[in-house]
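Helix-turn-helix transcriptional regulator: structure tokens wanted.
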Amino acid sequence: MPFRSLDDVQCSIERALRVVGERWSLLVLREARGGATRFDQFKDALGVSSDILAARLSTLVEYGVLERRPYREPGRRERHEYHLTQAGHDLQLVLGALGQWGDDHLPRVQGPSIERRSPAGELVRLHYLDESGREVAPADVESHRTAAYR
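Answer:
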């Protein structure tokens, strides 16, 4: 069930999870990043039921992660494609971090199923960087509440 207003939720992690934390949502985004745009493409790739997929797509559209665009094949009724918005593209960092964590902490004997590479073909990894560009280990990053955290 979508949450229409997130204004009363202080924690940004909780707000994000209300949009993308339901089962299948991040996998829908993975498939969208891989080029899926149509309902049947998502359904076939994920093996998810139609009603659950429809609900996930609706939530992702409602919160601006995907946008719905109409299309019509000759002789058929109008349908919709789903395309990543800028917010959806920005979530690729989250997907990359989850994939990297899975590769590091839940490795398969066969090795990683996806390699992340720069446009120049170099392998890339996600890291925290401080304002001067130095890498900071995740265990050394501290979270501090701001005045906005009531």
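The chain has a mean pLDDT of 93. The beta strands are 66-71, 79-84, 128-129, 135-136.

Cheers.
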